[in-house]
Amino acid sequence: MKNTIGLYGLGVMGANLAKNMANNRERVAVFNYTPDLTEKFVGEFSSQNVEAHYELEAFIQSLETPRKVFLMVTAGPVVDSVIRSIIPFLDKGDIIMDGGNSDFHDSNRRFHELNEQGIHFVSVGVSGGEEGALNGPALMPSGDACAYSLVAPILEKIAAKVDGKPCCTYLGPEGSGHYVKMVHNGIEYADMQLITEAYQFLRERVGLTVEEIADVFAQWNETDLKSYLIEITADILRKKDDETGKPMVDVILDKAGQKGTGKWTSKEALDIGAPSSILTEAVFARYLSAMKEERVHAENILSGPKAVDDKMDKDYWINVVKEALFMGKICAYTQGFNQYRTASEHYGWSLDLSEIALIFRGGCIIRADFLNKISNAFKQNKELTNLLLAPYFIEKTNRYQSSLRKVVMKGMESGLSLPCFSTSLTYYDGYRSSQSGANMIQAQRDYFGAHTYERNDKEGIFHTNW
Ligand SMILES: NC(=O)C1=CN([C@@H]2O[C@H](COP(=O)(O)OP(=O)(O)OC[C@H]3O[C@@H](n4cnc5c(N)ncnc54)[C@H](OP(=O)(O)O)[C@@H]3O)[C@@H](O)[C@H]2O)C=CC1
Ligand SMILES: O=C(CO)[C@H](O)[C@H](O)COP(=O)(O)O
């Protein structure tokens, strides 16, 4: 009997996706570039639904037609070289899926190049890490809708489920699925940075211990802040280092790494004119964190405000920080979904923002209860220009904006760097201001470069002889 799907790439994600498919009664052929990972996979997982292959041609020929090949390999040129290697064994109508964190520009190109050869290409954004890949990731597929309908039964089966609905929906043409995954990661960066700033404020300004902050996060996870990232933050704060007995978080070097998807989101925001400032500030915060040696040097040279030793009411401030964090998250998700809307218009993709929020409810790193509210907001008003203007978010921001202000002011006053909290507030205040100050910029542009301006009292294009 032929296999229903082929999984190429048995690294961290690919191995677990193959197990997930087999556990869901798909007959999976597996292949890896080097035999070592295939041997490791076969050694740790045995299932009558898995057939391991060490020859590429035999792997492809073991698949029922139209053949469905799922690639889970390192993003970038590797994907192109793998596609080139399997093409000779494929027939017209076969389907290649790419589940890696590929740049959507590459996915657009691959979609069209393969289309010309009669091969369907489905971009599949995958989120959920190692555990999600095994037990149910969030999947963001795009490409040819007919091709998707052929792989949908498998993808929807292996995806996470929330309220019985798979966290997997066809999103749009070309590489739009990888675009959705990219911005998901941009939002992920912002969410992580906001949580980090809440933690820093509670520790350095309010004076809570690591253990107390773990309890605070665990308690927040019982509220409207409930989310995977809040949950794991509580777990992280409880973990002690075996060697020193110190909290794990205190022995980890404060230099953040990154693989690039957050940066791509920001570059793309600049290209299409989406004001994703909080997402971008989170990328810059990682860059600044990576300059550890310079920061250590500067600490002894550059002055800040005098140490403040006012006693802060712990219970009062825990609640203020909670509301500030929720407010920051609302602004960050607003920017991410605004970027989807702008990209959808820019590329002509017709992305359904309500469906994207539904996919994110389970399996993925940014899964959170309040994605239901985001989904409802876009479902109730398809023309919604900005999430901040949806009734639920108007009510929340009206209540929480003053808390974000309090945390930013207290933090700034004491010299605490709060890049995403402060940028959230700046974005919120900027968006709700009918008067922006850009009239001055227009005047300056016209003064030095005769770039012209519009007037607010009559139609037309004007220039002043300054
Ligand atoms: N880890 C995570 O949490 C997530 C990762 N992703 C994305 O999934 C993809 C895979 O990630 P992950 O499983 O973590 O990575 P791993 O490093 O664990 O696995 C990489 C895979 O790519 C293969 N590969 C590398 N170079 C080549 C090549 N030249 N030709 C053929 N195959 C090659 C490797 O095979 P070999 O051993 O032979 O080199 C291996 O199977 C990436 O795009 C990643 O960004 C997406 C979501 C979450
Ligand atoms: O895609 C993911 C989750 O959704 C990966 O975990 C991602 O690689 C994390 O990004 P970075 O390494 O840049 O922090």
From TrEMBL:
- InterPro entries noted in UniProt: 6-PGluconate_DH-like_C_sf, 6PGD_dom2, 6PGDH_C, 6PGDH_Gnd/GntZ, 6PGDH_NADP-bd, 6PGdom_BS, NAD(P)-bd_dom_sf, Pgluconate_DH
One molecular function GO term is: phosphogluconate dehydrogenase (decarboxylating) activity
Q: Which UniProt keywords apply?
A: Gluconate utilization, NADP, Oxidoreductase, Pentose shunt
Its EC number(s): 1.1.1.44
6-phosphogluconate dehydrogenase C-terminal domain residues: 177-466
Q: Which residues bind NADP(+)?
A: G9, L10, G11, V12, M13, G14, N32, Y33, T34, V73, T74, A75, N101
Chain residues that bind substrate: N101, S127, G128, G129, H184, N185, Y189, K259, R286, R445, H451
Record's PROSITE patterns? 6PGD
Pathway, per UniProt? Carbohydrate degradation; pentose phosphate pathway; D-ribulose 5-phosphate from D-glucose 6-phosphate (oxidative stage): step 3/3
Catalysed reaction, written as an equation: 6-phospho-D-gluconate + NADP(+) = D-ribulose 5-phosphate + CO2 + NADPH
Q: Which residues form the active site?
A: K181 (proton acceptor), E188 (proton donor)
Keyword Cell inner membrane listed: no
Name the UniProt record assigns to this protein: 6-phosphogluconate dehydrogenase, decarboxylating
User: From which source organism is this entry?
Assistant: Oceanobacillus bengalensis
From the UniProt record, report the name of the gene that encodes this protein.
gnd
